[in-house]
C-alpha cells in the first residue's frame, strides 16, 4: 500500500503533470505527499593551465527561492496541509531525489519524463532514468 509519495518538481510542464498524477494517487490511497525541488549547485570547472577554476551554473537568489516556494504552494493548494510537505534541497537532481526518498521513507516516487536543467533547457530523461535505476522502490514516470 502506498503511504508516502515523493514528487520531483522542477517547474517543467511534465513535473506539473507528475504532481497532478501524484495528487490523484494520494487522494485514492490517502498517502502523504512530499513535493521536492532540487537546486543544482554551481560547479567548479578546471580552466586554463594555471590551476584556475571557473564556476558555472546559476547562482540562486532569494527571489528564485521565493518563486520556487510559490510554485510548490500552488501545487500543494488542493491537498490538506497535514498531507503535504514541501522540500527544497541543493544537489544533483537524480541523486538527491533518491536520497530524499530514503531519508523521508517514501515508498513511491513520481517524476516527469523530461524536465528542465539549471539553464532552463530540456533535460531528456536522464534524471528520470537515473532515478528508476537507483530508487529501490516503485517509480512512476509521467509523460
UniProtKB/TrEMBL annotation:
Gene3D superfamilies listed in its UniProt record: HUPs
Family matches, as Pfam families: Usp (PF00582)
UspA domain sequence ranges: 1-143
InterPro entries xref list: Rossmann-like_a/b/a_fold, Universal_stress_UspA, UspA
Top-rank lineage group of the source organism: Bacteria
Family indicated by similarity: Belongs to the universal stress protein A family.
The protein, known as: UspA domain-containing protein
Origin organism lineage: Bacteria, Pseudomonadati, Myxococcota, Myxococcia, Myxococcales
Amino acid at each position: 500500500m502506498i503511504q508516502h509519495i515523493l514528487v520531483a518538481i522542477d517547474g517543467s510542464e511534465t513535473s506539473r503533470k507528475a504532481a497532478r498524477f501524484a495528487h490523484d494517487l494520494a487522494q485514492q490511497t490517502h498517502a502523504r505527499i512530499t513535493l521536492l525541488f532540487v537546486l543544482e549547485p554551481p560547479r567548479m570547472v578546471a580552466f586554463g593551465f594555471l590551476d584556475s577554476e571557473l564556476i558555472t551554473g546559476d547562482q540562486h537568489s532569494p527571489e528564485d527561492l521565493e518563486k520556487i516556494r510559490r510554485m510548490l504552494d500552488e501545487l500543494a493548494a488542493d491537498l490538506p496541509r497535514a498531507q503535504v510537505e514541501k522540500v527544497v534541497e541543493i544537489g544533483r537532481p537524480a541523486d538527491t531525489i533518491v536520497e530524499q526518498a530514503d531519508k523521508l521513507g517514501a515508498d513511491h516516487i513520481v517524476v516527469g519524463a523530461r524536465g528542465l536543467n539549471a539553464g532552463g533547457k530540456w533535460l531528456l530523461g536522464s534524471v528520470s532514468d537515473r532515478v528508476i535505476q537507483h530508487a529501490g522502490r516503485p517509480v512512476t514516470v509521467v509523460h
